[in-house]
Amino acid sequence: MNLPVILIIAGAFLAFGLLVILLGGPSVGKAKTRRLAMVKDRHAASTEAVVAAQMRKTIQSGGRSDSALTAMLPRREELEKRIRRTGKSWTVTQYTFATMILFVAVTGGMLVVRAPILMAGLVGLMISLGLPYLVVGSTIKKRVAKFNARFPDAIDLCVRGLKSGLPVTETFQVVSQELPGPVGEEFKGVVERIRIGNTMEAALQESADMLGTPEFQFFCITIQIQRETGGNLAETLANLSDVLRKRSQMKLKIKAMSSEAKASAYIVGALPFFVFGIVWSMNPEYLAGFFYEQRLIVAGIGGFIWMSIGAGIMAKMISFEI
């Protein structure tokens, strides 16, 4: 059995699987879990449980505006959380349609320049799946970096408010009004969750889960320990602010020391693809065998796998945990 027949069979199975996913009914396990949650919420006695149930209903009612296609995406909740972490007003539907449009544009553009169908499909699939993921990841990284840069200032503002006699909730309100950007947005969200009935620990932990940074997690742990054991919260937060500033300085020092190794890794990783593109533009017939000759296809896939392993090793070598 030659390679084209194998590819046709694999494509048929893939199309059948996508058809089953798109036309299949809702998951029985998820439906059972939703029914149990509804029964539990109906008989909830505590105020916090009632507030949590109301928030779940609000989120579910707001999420119904998405299309039926996005509702059947695998791991949709994680994708929604990842998009919310960007701080933008993007939706899962916009993300999905952007991916589809990108696939059609890239694949069609490569077919216009007479690239092989297999090459056009693989490149279109890789770019359509990878580019939106990288854009969202880059947006999250920039937002978290902005948050970490101003977070010590927010803690210092809380310290000054506590020393002047303000309660903790009021200092959070002051931070949300005085500091722009991600810091003010996150503290505003904490204040709003406290106002609708959530405990301070739950409100802070939700922001910590959304940000995913150890700096804010340290802050949550400090607040929680102080509320359980007592003590001078202003002094504790001042020490935390000093630790976070030193941590940020250490990160910058490590970034400067590893910049040369990162540049070398980027050059070594991009060089084979750059050379392949140059040779393909000059003499396509010389490299055309990589798309129909079985031995060359296996060699190309093996080389790509080994390059991926090497890139992962280099990434681990220049990644330091502080």
Oligomer: single chain
CATH topology of the domain at 146-254: Receptor-associated Protein
The major pleated sheet works out as: none
Q: What is the SS-derived class? A: mainly alpha
Q: Which regions are unreliable across 5 or more consecutive residues at pLDDT < 50?
A: 18-28, 58-67
Question: How many DSSP-defined strands?
Answer: 0
Helix content: over 70%
- Percentage of β-strand residues: under 5%
Order of helices and strands: HHHHHHHHHHHHHHH
| Secondary structure tally, helices | 15
Architecture blueprint of SSEs:
Layout: H1 3-23, H2 28-42, H3 47-63, H4 68-71, H5 76-84, H6 92-112, H7 117-163, H8 168-178, H9 182-195, H10 200-211, H11 214-229, H12 233-257, H13 259-282, H14 284-287, H15 294-317
Helix pairs in contact: 6-7, 7-8, 7-12, 8-9, 9-10, 10-11, 11-12
Would you write up a description of this structure?
- This protein is mainly alpha-helical.
- Among the domains are: about 145-255, Receptor-associated Protein, CATH 1.20.81; about 260-320.
- It has 15 helices and no strands.
- The protein has helices at about 5-25, 30-40, 45-65, 70, 75-85, 90-110, 115-165, 170-180, 180-195, 200-210, 215-230, 235-255, 260-280, 285, 295-315.
- The termini are far apart.
- The relative contact order is 0.06.
Tag the structure with descriptive keywords.
322 residues; mainly alpha; Receptor-associated Protein; 15 helices
